[in-house]
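Lab meeting notes turned into a lecture example. A postdoc, R.K., suggested we walk through two folding results consecutively so the class can see how the record format repeats. The first protein's sequence and structure tokens come next.
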Amino acid sequence: MTISKQEVENAALLARLRIDDEEIEEYARQLSLVLAYVDKLNQLDTSQIEPLVDILAVSNIWRADECKPYDRRLDLFKNSAYVKDEQYVVPKIM
């Protein structure tokens, strides 16, 4: 399958890319090579291969999500230059 210059121009327009004529020809050639390779892969017989859900056979390894009290809240305010009444003070925008 080959990609025409017009198809490359349309894709560039949709992607809002500005490309010149030399680049259009090169991209058309490269995209045609990619599609030829994909077409080669499509010719492989995969009827006996079971589809994968995940590459690694790993079950859920995440720990349980538990709420815990955080007793070092005041230490967080040390990172800010402006704190008032245990709240961050930020510049007024409007």
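The second example is placed directly after the first for contrast:
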Amino acid sequence: MKDLRELPKFRDGISYIYVERCKIEKDKEAIAIFDKDGKTPIPCASLAMLMVGPGVSITSEAIKNLVNVGCLVVWCGEEGVRFYAQGMGKTRSAKNLLLQAYLATHGDLRLKVVRNMYEMRFKEKVTENSTIQQLRGLEGSRVRKTYETWSKITGIQWKGRNYDFKNWTRSDPVNRALSAANSCLYGLCHAAIVAAGYTAAIGFLHTGQQLSFVYDIADLYKTDITIPLAFKTVKEGTQKIETRIRYTLRDSFKEQGLLKKIIPDIEKVLTVTDKNGQVIKPEKLKVSETFTGFLWDPKQGIISSGKNYSDEMNEKNNKRRK
């Protein structure tokens, strides 16, 4: 396996590529796309997410290359139907996942994480006496105001957030643009979460779904990115909204440097202190950077995975014989 330190940093990569009606094959250590225009090599080691649309054929060797570099593969349909599949990410350490689980399972610490999220959304300090219910109310009001503001700026009528995946065409253009834009944002946040060694399933505000943490992180950016771009895209026309919003988002992600922000923002969200005012860091948890890791023992707790139990038993038997 390639040295993990040789892999490119997530922030330096390409946000995502969307392909449809083509064939994807292995190309040395990368992949290549074959369509009517010929062959297009893709440096998958620096790719955060590959969106596979209708009419795509992909080989198992190409998938293997994508998984080996931690690229998230997303199968998406024209009607918004999506299926996720991902590799192990670009890290083999469990320290970030253990920190995430630790904070999520301790109520007082989880509350601090939630407050961090709201502070990042509001871009101001949240008072400690503010309840979660009050913060949710403020957030709801902020989002509604954002919709109303961009409705006035673009002249696009806003009737509220309403869509149905089972009948995609019944949604109005703005809702379709929002759904397509948020879908791309979710995928990119998912890729960042996996790349950094966290899990998408353990959320703090959202809970009970496989993508709970994805929704938590994506919500940090919606009012600044997907909502404005959805209204702007619809103002320019209602034809091929989903395709146009994807291209617009790709350019926006690059201009705003979103890849450089997501993982540091996740770290900021999960930076909380214990009762003694000490920041809880992954290094304080018992983790291993090796491939074998540690073993759990009911009496001794965490022990080295290199411990030889056969030698231990032989030693005990020898003592008994003596």
